[in-house]
Fold each of these.
Amino acid sequence: MNSSPLTSPYIGRFAPSPSGPLHMGSLVAAMASYLDAKVHLGTWLLRIEDLDYDRNVEGADLGILASLQRCGMHWDGEATWQSRRLPLYEAALKQLQDDGLVYACGCSRKEIQDSVLQAGGPKGGVAVYPGTCRHGLAPGKAARALRLRVPQGPPAVYGFTDRWAGPQQQDLAGEVGDFIVLRGDGYWAYQLAVVVDDGEQGITHVVRGADLLDSTPRQLYLQDVLGLPHPGFLHVPVVTNGSGEKLSKQTGALAFDTGTSAADLLASALLPAARFLGLDVRADKVDDFWRQAIPAWAQRLARLPEQA
């Protein structure tokens, strides 16, 4: 399967999780998605992905909105919250169930890893789900999650061209296996929720961090079985800490704009984020920053390798 980006109209989005304040890593993703929408004269939506309730931090969602506004990034329309969209996910799951594509799985992570080892896989390697529960739960097993069946053979190979990283390809059967759409704790899996949201909101272009690059084939498959269009994709490099880990709340990323003046915000956040994306911007005011950053993003896109 191949995915090609839609052309017009352009509808993009930024979709942070409220597990902490906006930090440099998430600012880079926000900036790239915002600039891409502006360059293409498109719409930029804001969606708070708050379905992992155990990780949500009270007030972080409103803090993220305030940080974006302080940075001069203003979204179109009203912001949305995934936690207010649960009927959409329930309807999508029912569609998948009616099509016979979902089944109950009773396997723990350890059991899946043990199965990989028994099949000769490397210890600590990627645990491809072996399909243990595809034909029903073993006696005495209780359901821990719901999984989506992936196709076998050539139909399992999903390819797409990323506007930044170039041609990509993944064999869902061989590299992922049947994947979870509803977790054992009752939380909706990211893959299902993001596909349903993007489809319902009419997203035509997804710009996000490269840490989500390998999730894209699963989302393309879900879009196919749910009858949703494929958006175009652009995955920017992720910011890392001193240990080479992706900068995130879990690796100690800190808010960048707490108590800072507009000048400090430029120096400590906006200009470094622009430099990380390869943009030549030298403004000393926030408004001037964006006036320079938008054409600089267009120039950056023009310098990307030809995406055959």
Amino acid sequence: MPEIKHKLSQFDPVWSRVCEEAVAAIAVEPLLGGLVHSSLLHHPTMERALAYRFSLKLASGEMSEQILREIADEAYASDPELGQAARADLMAVFDRDPACHRYLQPILFFKGYQAVQAYRVGHWLWTQGRIDLAYFVQMRVSEVFGVDIHPAAKIGKGLMIDHAHSIVIGETAVVGDNVSMLHSVTLGGTGKEDGDRHPKIGNGVLIGAGAKVLGNIHIGNCSRIAAGSVVLQDVPPCTTVAGVPAKVVGEAGCPQPAVMMDQVIKGCN
């Protein structure tokens, strides 16, 4: 790794670790050298690397890599919280997903992480009034990753989406900090109503695979939603709900369900 790259990365422990892992990965598998260099080691910061991955993944005949790269670079430069959220999301995946053994894996290989970072750029565009471009990002994220998050949705830091297939998050949904959800989760509406019509997910919530949370309802902090449940009413904090329709079946079982990732209803040990 070039000396200047090392000097820049050492002030950012997360990015520094990614770069160290990148060097080690090439030593083990030289055939990945081009991918790892172009995606990670050629960039002085994590933000620049994420902008490159954003442009590479979402480019098409309708929008070039260069234009998308400029859009993402502008977003990261204008809003430091995008980079902070990216690091928090990365830490969340590493801490909660037993299949993640290195920091570089989500950036290179995990579509859930990549889709969320692309959504964050799209959300930034939305807040800047660049609505059609935000919709374009949403469309490409859905086409490429199978994850459909409306750019107007508000998502906190430390989000972990495991597998991430068929995730749907609606326009007026709000997701708090340190939330974990598995594949095929829907945060949707209940019909054709306009206005504020999507769920509000509190901090530290764990949402199991295939769960559907529908309507303008509130899911309390540190609660659990069992896999396959259909939630149509508010959920109190620190409880577990399950069933169709979902009902309270007990306490959450531990202080931080989203971190423990324990989906057994009898509770966390």
Amino acid sequence: MIIGNGKSTPLSRNAMAYVLAGGRGSRLHDLTDKRAKPAVHFGGKWRIIDFALSNALNSGIRHIGVATQYKAHSLIRHLQLGWTFFRRERNESFDILPASQRVSEHSWYLGTADAVYQNIEIIESIAPAHIIILAGDHIYKMDYEMLLQQHVAQKADVTVACVEVPLAEATGFGVMHIDTSDRILAFLEKPAEPPPMPGRTDVALASMGIYVFETKFLFDLLRHDAADPHSEHDFGRDIIPRLVREGRAMAHHFSRSCVRSSKEAEPYWRDVGTIDAYWESNIDLTDFVPALDIYDRSWPIWTYTEGTPPAKFIHDEEGRRGLAVSSLVCGGCVISGAALRRSLLFTDVRINSFSQVTSAVILPDADVGRHARLTNVVIDRGVRIPEGLVVGEDPEEDARRFRRTEKGVCLITKAMIDRL
């Protein structure tokens, strides 16, 4: 597209970001019993979905759709509070698209591809030239404009964004077998023997769940897929493998479009789909120089910001001193005569006197009773920790009462506390 001064407009201004946010995230277990994975809290003030949405906004995209399904109330409420500032009169749109049986009275979203197919009419009313399909459950910073530019320059039918992963870990991903021109030769779902990248015997190229299509071409694919009784109606299982076989499927390396500040040494992308990964990614933010720079104002992560008072640290007596070391503490928190080390507290958390909290991720509105000792824990929203509770010192006792991971992290929910 050419504007009046002869300069071309960014491709992102005529693109739509379509975020698939309907998944449960079953590997997070009790943490997603009441909320979808994209709605899970992360980093002190955000939800996981805020990263994909912020990437779209910062990339210049002004048309966004979010498909929801599994236990979507908290996700929809978050989107309504924090993301409805897009205005139609500015040629912007933000659509929340719950599974509403638009196509059939008997069908919810049957798969990721069907979640787009059922909303074709809504997308057509916006008429974007390109559509970027995004997973709503990963932590990363990425400029989608660069992804769009590669897609158009290479005249691809689909461009798949990919991240490099160690070969030994690639068995848990959808892996791309590519040639030296980045054309995808095969798409292998969780292969036992992942193919390495050309010239890199120790690294494989894994799908990020991000796909770029020319919109009209995608609609033709989706209509054909919807009519196929043998299809699972899924991008990873049906649409992408078909284009690899019959079309021109290209890989985009995340390192080319990753947004990094001067403090970020490596491209950062995390699937926080397990309790261990979720705990590690949050605790990593407490490092002196964290791998993810959340202080980078040139690429802000947008969200709904609550009006909370400042964090408060009270009492200064021997054995009863409110302090935090190598920790992130959000607004509304009160550290009352307790010690906090290498921990991350979301909003409105209270830690009461004589408690010791180490390597903890504590979600909003939690309350830790006096004399508690907590190590390597994730505490769900609104949990009230009883006085004197000890977690992280006796593995057998922890596993009996809470959900304890292989790495020794304990997830604590209200239901678990109620059973004590």
